[in-house]
Amino acid sequence: MAQCIVLADVITGGSTVGAMLEKNHCTVCSLVNSRGIHDPEISSFDCLVYSTNSRHLKPAQSYQIVFSATRLLRSPEVKIYAKMIDAAMRGNTFTETQALLDALGDPDRVAIVVPAFPALKRICVGGYILVDGKPVQKSLADLDDTPAQTGRIADLFEEKFAYNVKALHIKEYTLGLEHLSNRIRELARDGIRAIIMDCTSQEDINLIADAVIASKIKFLAVDPGPFTATIARKVMRSDAQTHISSNAKIFGIIGGINPFLGTQVEQLKLEYNPLIVTVKDSEFLGDDQSRYMEIARVVEEICSKIDGQTLILAVSETVGNVQNTNTLHEELHPTNRTTLEVIDLISAAYGQITAKVLERNPDIQALYSTGADLTAAACRELKALGMRVMGQVLPLTTYGELLGGSHSGLKCVNTTSSSTDTNTITESIQYLMRKLEI
Known about the structure:
The chain has helices at about 10-20, 60-75, 95-105, 135-140, 155-160, 170-175, 175-190, 200-215, 225-235, 240-245, 260-270, 290-305, 320-330, 340-360, 370-380, 425-435; strands at about 5-10, 30, 45-50, 80-85, 110-115, 120-125, 130, 135, 165-170, 195, 220-225, 250-255, 275-280, 310-315, 365-370, 385-395, 395-405, 410-415. By secondary structure, it is α/β, with parallel strands linked by helices. The chain folds into two domains: about 5-235, Putative sugar-binding, N-terminal domain (Rossmann fold, 3-Layer(aba) Sandwich); about 245-435, Four-carbon acid sugar kinase, nucleotide binding domain (Molybdenum Cofactor Biosythetic Enzyme, Chain A, 3-Layer(aba) Sandwich).
């Protein structure tokens, strides 16, 4: 029997959620006919997405369809139930969420509503759904069900939902995981049946998922897909995987002359809160002492701050800083070194930083690198024979694992120096997190 059950009001939206779940290494089946629910072949899938085709029906009709489908699908073996909703709030979101809760029959089950899809620039702030920074009503035409007065999804739930509703905003997130988990538990204990969550990034989604799991409440995931996929990944993994994933870290080395790197790093910081240590490339062009001291400084700073961090980056001082790049070029003249020699010196230093950081931190299970020179230097210092190519993250960005050496099997993603997509680093890190089930 499936461990994850998702109900969607249209097949296209359901298939979208299914594709996200498949990235969790799950087998997924998208059903459109109730006759398949008890088919032996269907029972072998990890996740089942059932499309009710009820978006344009009257609320009473959609309630009955979702209620009946949920009754057929519910099982003690299911670990997570989810309701796929439209990111623009089209359809009978409130009625169908209520129908799912009613059909599951648990009076203490709470709908965790995360009406956001950050990758599509659809977020929720203060209870308002924003698309490209604008209220949803001003961004998308022909919406079937949008709040005409305030534009707040929380107001809509309070108006159209039969149970008590509460909204939690960004300020709650700044107080940390334990605080958010306690707030969710308190609201559930007080009889709240739907909690509307602000969400601006994948980092917020990860925090919400961790807080819901830590609260130990019975829940129903309600969102366009990203939250369901994230919390399913965390709930469905085994105890052994949970231990490994809870400690897993990603280390990255970022440098080069690509003018888009600065923007890519800034975009990453909007989604996550990485530990970033700036590397002074100019120190690698001096004598051996200054070179060794800078390598030691970077390694010590990383190792002293790494506890509690998932994403750690050593970023060149030249990234996003034209002035530093020009200064570095000026310092080349008195050294009589060729450009190739300088590249080798700087790259080798990053390779040594990588080897020393990985040696002292066995929880690092993946490496991200930009450019051929930094990637080759890291492989050289780790004594790798090469890389097993296992897939493409994006055009010009490759996923694989190291072969041989001191860290054989280390997962890695590398991007060519010519990548211009501003989301390259962000999507690469998200890809690694999915692979590591963080």
